[in-house]
Amino acid sequence: MTKPVIGFIGLGLMGGNMVENLQKKGFEVVVMDLNKDAVATVLGRGNAKEASSPKELAESSDIVMLCLTTSEVVEKVVYGDNGILAGIKEGAVLVDFGTSIPASTRKIGADLAAKGAGMIDAPLGRTPAHAKDGLLNIMAAGDKATFEKVKPVLDEQGENVFHLGALGAGHVTKLINNFMGMTTVCTMSQAFAVAERSGVDRQQLYDIMSTGPSNSPFMGFCKNYAVDGVSDLGFSINNANKDLGYFVKMMEDLGSVADIAEATSKNLQAAVDAGMGEGNVPEIFDYFVKLEK
Hints:
The chain is an alpha/beta fold. 54% of the residues lie in helices and 12% in strands.
């Protein structure tokens, strides 16, 4: 069976490695990115071409994949002049691998459906190294027929591919996951900061906490930075801040409140405002250590 042509927008560390994996597995790709060096790397591997606009990319592709930073950027690529919506083919599928606001995802899906195209939201777990080897965790959602259409390609990109239900459920799940994870990291980082300010040995605090039910991989990441000075959780404060903001917006859309998430978001935003946004999330320890009334 002929492999589908894959259009891919967003060749950052994760997206670039995902495209490399697809090329290694024999897929023809059509790509776009503001980073022309990243585009040149893809073209240099062969069986690839660059599109001049999202519309042109969509016209040339059976499956369009996005690995972009924000819902705002996704909407711009979809709805902008010469956007994906203007060029997508009937029967084609758009896959959004980023972390987006679920209400935005559902709106895009409805507009694509009106043109006879489908959509899957498929946020990712694991690292760029996993992406290069096709070993990602993929939290996919959308109607079952559309999911089954793209699943053979998702299986080439992910070791674990989950179908979570109706369109938007993937983004909901990812936002819940990141709310829990980033709130945990902020809480544990502040715990180490309180120990430091109180004159309690941080290693001993870890030794005590890690013997109880609070122990987790996240505690290990926080300890690695707060005690050992090693920053090895590859997720930035900027990204965590964006995702917590999206979680709060999602809760508003659900007609509920998110007091815990709002507190986490407030601290992440303060760390960003302090110039720490590019650091990994456990580095928020430095913000808490210096925090005054």
